[in-house]
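Exercise 7. Given the encoded structure of a 404-residue chain, write a plausible sequence.
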């Protein structure tokens, strides 16, 4: 599929439900027999060109080259699930009917590695387990499905906090005229032992409503300050931007968390910028405003992220003590042709000029977008044109100094 982009490979990832009972009750020899029967049933449900494999334990996978659609692949997976669910005869004449399979089904996308494909299918399999087993979950990129899958992650989050699986990557913020980096934004990643590197879109929504968000937020602050402290050369005095979740801002003790991170890492406060999303900042209570004022007296700067996405809160935001506005990438995306995007970008730029705020444009992917922004007076930006988020070079903080 990598060689020919019109072809897509399908992958079905299966994990048996109720297999442990077979081993525990009838012994491993019987368990082995059941696995062989399952393998035969999988083979009987697929085409000759497909490849079935046992990945280990009670996990199987089926690779289907040349599938026409996700729907077709789902039907194959359902057929396998039904076959596995039929009762199995055990040696002593017992018929065991508690066996079933939880499956995840994915189609390759261009440039997917085999590893990534397996990880995606594995996560969907896990989702099937969470939803009550004996089912097939297929990849659906709609928001509802994303949210639903995220909810299934909550029990995993606690473990991840304990095992220190949250890390940050850094994306450069550059001077748009020269392309030279002037600061960097810390972006949260989850290094999951089975599913690989996950981005915030895949788990943040679950994390925000979980009890673990304060800890994760504290950890991000600490990591970001720690790495920034190690920057050398042109970046030695540069600012690090850290995203603050609505929960941290509204109910947590942001001021205490920030002071803690700055003290433990010895990062000068004027090298820290906190990013609050426009939506959350727009709903800020007076107590939150006081918090921000105290942070600003320390020398920490405040940025409003994703500006333009929630204009209703704008009046309230301008009442907050802020330094920077970040234009949301959806408006940069439409440049230079979309007149509505141009209007919003220009409005934000002119507002920032009169209020003496710095502007950073996000999501710059094309030279033409950058040129338009520069011609309207926008000086700073970030985006794939200049660099994606990357793992930091220095070592992580040692556990002894890890705050949070
Ligand atoms: P954000 O703060 O607006 O971050 C920018 C997002 O845009 C990042 O996605 C970044 O990788 C992506 N991006 C950068 N340049 C481009 C580009 O040229 N094109 C496109 N299409 N995208 C670009 P990421 O890392 O997936 O983060 C998504 C959002 O998750 C962030 O949006 C932020 O709201 C949230 N987030 C990330 N890290 C943290 C964190 O540590 N704490 C909290 N509370 N939220 C975080
Ligand atoms: Mg941000
Ligand atoms: Mg943003």
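Solution.
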């Amino acid at each position: 599929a990598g060689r020919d982009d019109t072809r897509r490979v399908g992958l079905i990832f299966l994990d048996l439900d109720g297999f442990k009972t077979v081993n525990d009750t009838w012994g491993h020899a019987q368990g082995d027999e059941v696995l062989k029967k399952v393998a035969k049933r999988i083979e009987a449900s697929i085409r000759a060109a497909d490849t079935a494999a046992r990945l280990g334990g009670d996990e199987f996978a089926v690779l289907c080259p040349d599938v026409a659609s996700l729907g077709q692949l789902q039907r194959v997976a359902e057929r396998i699930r039904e076959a596995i669910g039929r009762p199995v005869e055990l040696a002593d004449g017992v018929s065991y009917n508690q066996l079933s399979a939880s499956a995840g089904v994915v189609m390759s996308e261009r440039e997917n590695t085999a590893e990534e494909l397996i990880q995606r299918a594995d996560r969907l399999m896990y989702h099937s387990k969470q939803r009550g087993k004996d089912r097939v979950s297929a990849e659906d990129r709609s928001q509802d499905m994303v949210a639903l899958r995220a909810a299934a992650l909550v029990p995993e989050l606690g473990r991840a906090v304990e095992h220190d699986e949250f890390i940050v990557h850094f994306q450069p913020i550059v001077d748009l005229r020269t392309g030279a980096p002037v600061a960097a934004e810390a972006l949260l990643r989850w290094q999951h032992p089975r599913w690989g590197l996950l981005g915030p879109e895949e788990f943040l929504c679950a994390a925000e409503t979980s009890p673990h968000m304060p800890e994760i937020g504290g950890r991000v602050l600490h990591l970001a300050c720690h790495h920034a402290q190690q920057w050398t050369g042109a970046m030695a005095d540069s600012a690090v931007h850290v995203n603050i979740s609505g929960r941290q801002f509204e109910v947590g003790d942001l001021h205490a968390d920030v002071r803690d991170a700055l003290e433990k890492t010895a990062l000068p406060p004027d090298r820290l910028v906190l990013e609050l999303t426009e939506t959350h900042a727009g709903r800020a209570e007076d107590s939150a405003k006081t918090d921000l004022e105290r942070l600003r007296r320390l020398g920490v700067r405040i940025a409003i992220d994703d500006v333009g996405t929630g204009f209703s809160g704008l009046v309230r935001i301008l009442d907050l003590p802020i330094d920077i506005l970040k234009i949301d990438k959806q408006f940069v995306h439409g440049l230079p042709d979309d007149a509505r995007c141009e209007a919003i970008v220009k409005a934000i730029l002119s507002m920032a000029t009169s209020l003496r705020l710095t502007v950073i444009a996000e999501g710059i992917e094309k030279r033409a977008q950058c040129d338009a922004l520069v011609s309207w007076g926008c000086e700073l930006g970030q985006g794939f044109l200049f660099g994606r988020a990357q793992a930091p070079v220095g070592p992580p903080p040692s556990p002894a100094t890890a705050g949070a």
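Remark. The CA atoms of residues 127 and 148 lie 9 Å apart. Students should compare their own answers with the one above.
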